[in-house]
Amino acid sequence: MPTVPPAPTAADAVDVTALLERGRTLSTPVLRTAVGRLAPPMDTVASYHFGWIDAAGNPAEGDGGKAVRPALAVLSAEVTGAAPETGIPGAVAVELVHNFSLLHDDLMDGDEQRRHRDTVWKVHGPAQAILVGDALMALANELLLELGTVEAGRATRRLTTATRALIDGQAQDISYENRDRVSVEECLEMEGNKTGALLACASSIGAVLGGADDATADALESYGYHLGLAFQAVDDLLGIWGDPVSTGKQTWSDLRQRKKSLPVVAALAAGGPASAKLGEILAADARSSDFASFSEEEFAARAALIEQAGGREWTAEEARRQHRIALDALDTVSMPERVREQFVALADFVVVRKR
User: Fold this and answer.
1) What are the GO BP annotations of this UniProt entry (predicted)?
2) What are 299-345's pLDDT values in tens digits?
3) What is the CA radius of gyration of the chain?
């Protein structure tokens, strides 16, 4: 379910597909070379995760994801007047950390599908998912520090801070699954850590490598952080009502995992009969030992209560609100108008996507 599109702007003329493809094209060769440095069989397992080979080791053209983070990292270099290539090490480092988190999250959440095929832990086992995730995180910092510049040191510091926040967010996410209630504020804090922190880093890391001062980098991080909250709000909508053909995940994915996502916590906080009924059902679910055997109809009934209580519409409006805050942050940064329009276009893309 996409949110309501933002108002038309000059950024509507930007080809977002080309912008995403530029980030992917510039970063993928460097990413492949970096992954090739991993010891066997981690190099093969990582290649499978990135979609470069299939489970049998044959070359493949898998879905490599939306590539929003590499696009942002490359674009942010241009804020300083540097060439987009300046942002490539940052783009690759952020992508490595992002995929470290995906490998571990899939295992912790028990997700069997990502990007329309089996996850690494299901194909290669939990141990390889853990090891390869660890290796990717270490490799991200190694790649930046190898640049040997002051700017690289500043970029690494921002990346490690974002990585720690991301891990904090995952810990919060897991802890919330077994709680009857989570406040909207707690959920937003968790999602800011889990998603916002790394998008904030992606939005600033290229600029830092290009020599931007801290004030500029901080403003770009604010853009990325709030963009991350908008991104996650849309993700939460798709996690319940998304089309499995588009998302590559099961129907009612987040409900199956008992996630306290924004639509759920907003519905529980809303009050009213649907909210009260939902609270009773979810409290009983938390005590159930037979949750995995629930029928499609049972999950559909929970989704309907969330919608009736207003959780779906509240989350869609929150995505729009965070989108507006992200764009406001750009107003404090001096940059070429063309670059500003591309940042706006990427933000618009995030809140209207279907996967």
Assistant:
1) isoprenoid biosynthetic process
2) 999 999 999 999 999 999 999 999 999 999 999 999 999 999 999 99
3) 20
86-128 residue pLDDT tens? 999 999 999 999 999 999 999 998 889 888 899 999 999 999 9
Q: How would DSSP label each residue in 226-249? A: HHHHHHHHHHHHHHHH--HHHHSS
Query: Which H or E run includes 274?
Result: helix 273-287
Largest CA distance in the chain: 60
Residue type, 249: K
Q: Name the residue type at position 114.
A: R
* C-beta of residue 228 within 8 angstroms of C-beta of residue 318: no
**Domains, the chain:** 10-352 (1.10.600.10)
- Distance in angstroms (rounded) separating the CA atoms of residues 141 and 97: 9
Please, are residues 91 and 74 in contact by the beta-carbon 8 Å criterion? yes
The tokens for 331 are 């107003």
- What pTM value is reported for the model? 0.92
- Please report the DSSP string for 29-97 in residue order: HHHHHHHTTSPTTHHHHHHHHHTSB-TTS-B--------HHHHHHHHHHGGGT--GGGGHHHHHHHHHH
For residue 12, with 0-12 CB atoms within 10 Å meaning exposed, 13-18 middle and 19 or more buried, which class applies?
A: middle
Closest CA to 84 of 176, 18, 34: 18
